[in-house]
Input
Amino acid sequence: MISDKLGKIVSLCKRRGFIFGGSEIYGGLSSIWDYGHLGAVLKKRIKDAWWDTYVERRGDIVGLDSSIIMREDVFMASGHLEGFNDLLIDCPGCKRRFRVDKMEKINEKVYRCPDCKEENDIQINQPRKFNLMLKTNMSATEDNPYYGYLRPETAQGIFVNFMNVLNTTHKKLPLGIAQIGKAFRNEVTTGSFIFRMKEFEQMEIEYFVAPCDADKAYLYWVKERSDFYIEKIGLKKENMRLREHEKDELAHYAKSCTDVEYNFPFGWSELEGIANRTDFDLREHARVSKKDLSYFDEDSKRKFIPFVIEPSAGVDRTFFAVLCDAYKEEEVKGKMRVVLKIKPNLAPYYVAIFPLLKNRVELVELAKKIFANVKSKIPAVYDDTAAIGKLYRRQDEIGTPFCVTVDVDTLTDEKVTIRDRDAMRQERIGVDKIIEFIKEKIYAND
Ligand code: GAP
Output
């Protein structure tokens, strides 16, 4: 039943052009996905909500857009070259590869292959270390290679620019540096759609504080970030929970970490991690680069390496959670409708406009004219390629909060029928009131 919901969401994403397989016409590429129009717009809305909340509306956080490819020394200092590994084991029977840490959870330390179950004892193979970093040859020739690395987290671009940002913005601590961008990991356990990808997007804040303020800031960010998903993204409270990391699962740089988890159809899983990274990163970058990355506090006249609290969110996982949370099947007049009850301001289109009868030229013309006007102010779509019932269902399925129908009466009374996605209530409003009506409802809670 549960995986059935996942299957339906995956199928909706492909059918309606939210998501396509990467390099699909050549047979696809494992754990790489492309976003179609509706997916790209929904993803942008999620990123905009985050950027707007933290960069545009606060005085203590500034933005950054650093490069994806970074030098090898960056990842020597950060510990990723040495410590960013998965311990993997191969099944001698079916040849599938598994992460040892996940195996322990599944098998309670009895290493039977989760796929072949009783048949193959995979303990006869030795686990091997796999580094998750993706490396690229930056030399023009093959015989004299030099390598750059695709960042596995956007965070390192923030740490290496800490001094640039501090010196150019003249800000004091606490100071956050926020970045949205791609990150790359050669993940080996794959297969849960966009939950775990080799190329994905992160929204990260590195929040620099005096060491004595770190614990307080950590608690603040855990609460702030879990509230964000409910208030700004519209996820249901009962589908969210916080989970603090056990000491043995902490990343090599973290003193403490709390995950914001979402109840996905395949179980509770991480949406975001909020970590206290201490002064690990700045200290290591200072050591390896031999640059002074300390901060002078004017008030206390003390010099120190700031501590960092890091709320690190995945764009694609938030996107996935939005779809899982919003997907509903409802019976309407004996028929099933699929509806995405997305928070209205995140919907790819705020309104769809249709003529009631597609073979009445004057209705089509008027509907197109209304559409052109509305589209210049709010995200809108026009459709006249099916009967009205089907047009409504199409929009329900992609989460459009309002549908406007132009009918014969519109020609004389200059009013249209506007239908609400969730309640399916219909009312008549003036053509000149459409934009105002929708804006009022969409932005009511922001
Ligand atoms: N800078 C800290 C950091 O990268 P992380 O827990 O490894 O921490 C943060 O990643 C977030 O990035 C995760 O909570 C998840 O939302 C997202 N993420 C990580 N790996 C991912 C992957 N392979 N595919 C999709 N999203 C991923």
User: Anything to note?
Assistant: The CA atoms of residues 92 and 124 lie 8 Å apart. The mean pLDDT is 93. The pocket of glycyl-adenosine-5'-phosphate is lined by residues 153, 155, 185, 187, 196-197, 200, 202, 204, 270-273, 310, 312-314, 316-317 (CB under 6 Å). The first helix runs from residue 2 to 15.
